[in-house]
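DM from R.C. (forwarded with permission)

"hey, sorry to bug you on a friday — could you get me a structure for this? deadline for the figure draft is monday and I only need the backbone to look sensible"
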Amino acid sequence: MSIVLHHHPFSRASTAVWMLEELEVPYELRFVDIMKGEQKSPELLALNPMGKLPTLTDGEAVVTESAAIGLYLADRYAYGRLCPKVDDPKRGTYLRWSLFAPSVIEPGSMAKVANWQFKSVQAGWGSYDEMLKTMESAIADRDFLLGKEFSMADVIFGGTLRYMLQSKMLESTPAFSAYAERLAARPALKRADARNAAIRAERGLDKK
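My reply, with the result:
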């Protein structure tokens, strides 16, 4: 099996499972016990010096960082289906919101929770209120980020939004809740959630 995802269900690798389920291609999950620090093993550090998950290999290719994994997989296995082609004007919108998640939503939400003190004009993620308004603008009056068309950007952006809502790191709004419900109806997301839940049960993680 070419695609191997180094995985733990309590890491960002859980969203990568959703990415892989959307592709509908064979893949292997390789459990990494992050509670025991296995992500810092020599084997994993050789692939990802950050010692973090998700880390994905596809033959000789090694891809880390959730957004990069999603973009790579869509281009490699679902080009034109889960991502606009390079000559499609929607490609810009697709890339914009895919990269907005790790560069704005994650640090912006963490800054809010941790009460970081900084000047918003000097931070790449701006202010929390600006972030919320921008996120809502991305999904206002449309089903998905590209309109009626679902894409890998929705897995990256939507997966981040979904996690932030579940962990109470992001304030819910009617637009966010409705978008999250549309994503939850995806058969691939249901399969991914079931697979992550099965691994948690198998490893007794829900009891810890």
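R.C.: lifesaver. The longest strand covers residues 3-7.
me: no worries. The mean pLDDT is 96.
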